[in-house]
Amino acid sequence: MTNDQLLKIAQDYGSPVYVYDAEKIAAQYKRLTNAFKGVNTLKINYAVKALSNISILKFLNTLGSGIDTVSIQEINLGLAAGFLPEQIIFTPNGVSLDEIETAAKLGVQINIDNLSILEQFGTKHPDIPVCIRINPHIMAGGNSKISVGHIDSKFGISIHQIPHLLRIIENTKMTINGIHMHTGSDILDIDVFLYASEILFETARSFKNLEFIDFGSGFKVPYKAGDIETNIEELGKKLTAKFNAFCKEYGKDLTLAFEPGKFLVSEAGSFLTQVNAVKQTTSTVFAQVDSGFNHLIRPMFYGSHHDIINISNPKGKERFYTVVGYICETDTFGNNRRINEITEGDVLCFKNAGAYCFSMASNYNSRFRPAEVLWYNGAAHLIRKRETFDDIIKNQIEVDFSNSKKEAVLSK
Predict the structure, then answer these.
(1) DSSP character for 219?
(2) How far apart (Å, rounded) are the C-alpha atoms in residues 158 and 155?
(3) How high is the pLDDT of residue 155?
(4) What is the largest CA-CA distance in the chain?
(5) Is 247 annotated in the active site?
(6) Which residue of 139, 185, 209, 300 lies most exposed, with the fewest beta carbons within 10 A?
(7) Which residues pair with 277 in a beta bridge?
(8) Is 364 annotated in some ligand binding site?
(9) Residue 335 φ/ψ, nearest 5 degrees
(10) Overall average pLDDT of the 50-71 stretch
């Protein structure tokens, strides 16, 4: 998308506003499927938690994607978007047995990462095949908050608990139809995937009725010019060879599955904000925008980098700015950034705003969550309205304190 197109969207729909480029999502999906075209059956399950707008889900459905869900609400959203139950995998953590049973009744693929829950579910529902999430004890990911496969992680069943796992399966007579892992997000080194794959293949040899092996995701995308990223093409060649060799040894063709979220939608997203004020202090020039970590928490939560571009003045002289929000706490989007000269009223564009941005937005400070727009077939389509004050109070219930006032007066 061009700066002029983004500026027009900010003008038409106001700011702040999230914008997603459908063409970029499709290109990323095609890139991933092309990288693994050497396997007989490939299944891409988009991680709904990254960006859960129903129009995004419907678009991914047209590309042939399935979905990876982590809550019963995401399952219902996927069904509403037109996905069939068999296109949905449910990979929760720490949810109740009731929620897992509700998901099973809907016919989706169940993925369990807890020995206690596995035993309870298998005892009650031995005829429902389930997938097992394994913790390979690999520290991987761009940040401790998104590294989920290490020994202290709450996710997955430890590879050291395989004997216990097999005993549960033998006692319940349940069927395991899939093995799954996810080591973390923003993984750069493909050797991490290849090493973890060996652990997963070794684990898979203990199960005789597998239909698929799920490698999760965590591919790193570039966040700025010249940034490094996961080499999907090289990973595709090397992992395909290992996977096909394992299938031959196993005695049947299995499905190779991935659950990308950020890889598919991160670069497709732009977040547009308007500059409320330029504030010079003794040491810093602040560009203060009409948003904050209520709308985009990743820089404050993960220390993530988002390129910030002044699309109102793309050819202006570069100066150093610290871009901050309007929340009544420190909400710094970028420190000392070289940005084309900013004046009040300019529109700034935050790049890589497609994944874990709107989906983590809140109403902190009683601010409205922004609108969302999808750029599709050369036109802007509003896919979520900006919230209003009615949205803030619609679920609040007011208590009648009028009698308390009267009693206070009488007591005097």
Answers:
(1) B
(2) 9
(3) 81
(4) 88
(5) no
(6) 209
(7) 288
(8) no
(9) -95, 130
(10) 98
What distance in Å separates the CA atoms of residue 214 and residue 259, rounded to the nearest whole number?
8
Q: Which residues of 217-234 are buried (b: 16+ CB within 10 A; e: fewer)?
A: bbbbbebeeeeeebbbee
Structural domains of the chain, with CATH: 22-265 (3.20.20.10), 269-388 (2.40.37.10)
pLDDT at 407 > cutoff 70: no
Q: 225 to each of 28, 125, 228, 308, 351, how far by Cα in Å? A: 18, 51, 9, 12, 11
- 75 in Cβ contact with 90 (< 8 Å): yes
Q: Is 302 annotated as a binding residue?
A: yes
Two structure tokens written together for 353: 């705003």
Q: Model confidence over 289-328: pLDDT tens digits?
A: 999 999 999 999 988 999 999 999 999 999 999 999 999 9
pLDDT at 208 over 60: yes
- On the question of pLDDT at 259 being above 90, the answer is yes
**Residue 368 DSSP class:** P
State the pLDDT confidence band at 148, using cuts at 50, 70 and 90: very low
Q: Which of 131, 328, 349, 357 is catalytic?
A: 328
